[in-house]
Amino acid sequence: MSQDLDSLYQEIILDHYKNPLNAGLREPYEAEVHHVNPTCGDEITLRVHLSGPGDDAVVEDVSYAAEGCSISQASASVMTELIIGKPLRQALSVHGDFQALMQGRGTVEPDEDVLEDGIAFAGVAKFPARVKCALLSWMAWKDATSRVLGEAATSGSAGTESKEQS
Questions:
Q1: Which of 30, 115, 122, 139 is 20–30 Å from 94 (CA)?
Q2: Exposed, middle or buried: residue 74 (CB in 10 Å: 0-12, 13-18, 19+)?
Q3: Gap between the Cα atoms of 108 and 102, Å rounded
């Protein structure tokens, strides 16, 4: 990656950190989870609101309260921008693309049309200790969504609390 591109990506991350989108816990929501990265202490409480049944559901809202490094907080902001308003199936696909980017150790070429500002995290993938920071909100969202759908959380559920409304 060129130095200019690295600089641009750093600016995008800092912008989302300083001006987070969709921060602050909101209602209505069907599930709330709390995830912690024990390695660095980053934390997020995340709420998800879906409408519609099962795979036909739409991600109506994702809200969160986060504490931690600029990477974890910026990633939460980017994630909400990418998935709110999308059909669940498409949001899960975006999640998969971001996870592949993060786990690719800098070898995955991100699709800007899919990940938009999420491509700024391509450089983060080269630093395994920071990958968990970038994925914290994404795993919390997947966990909360799984809870809404009545499924067992498939990953990242250690230290997670859930609140489901009736």
A1: 30
A2: buried
A3: 8
The per-residue pLDDT for range 138-148, each reduced to its tens digit, is 999 999 999 99
Average pLDDT, integer, range 83-94: 97
Percent above pLDDT 90 for the chain:
72
In terms of C-beta density within 10 A (0-12 exposed, 13-18 middle, 19 or more buried), how is residue 143 classed? buried
Q: What domains, with CATH codes, occur in the chain?
A: 3-150 (3.90.1010.10)
DSSP 82-143: HHTTSBHHHHHHHHHHHHHHHHTTT-----HHHHGGGGGGGTGGG-HHHHHHHHHHHHHHHH
DSSP-assigned beta bridge partners for residue 23: 64
Collapse the DSSP code of 53 into the 3-class scheme (helix H, G, I; strand E, B; otherwise coil) and give the result: coil
Beta carbons of 18 and 29 less than 8 angstroms apart: no
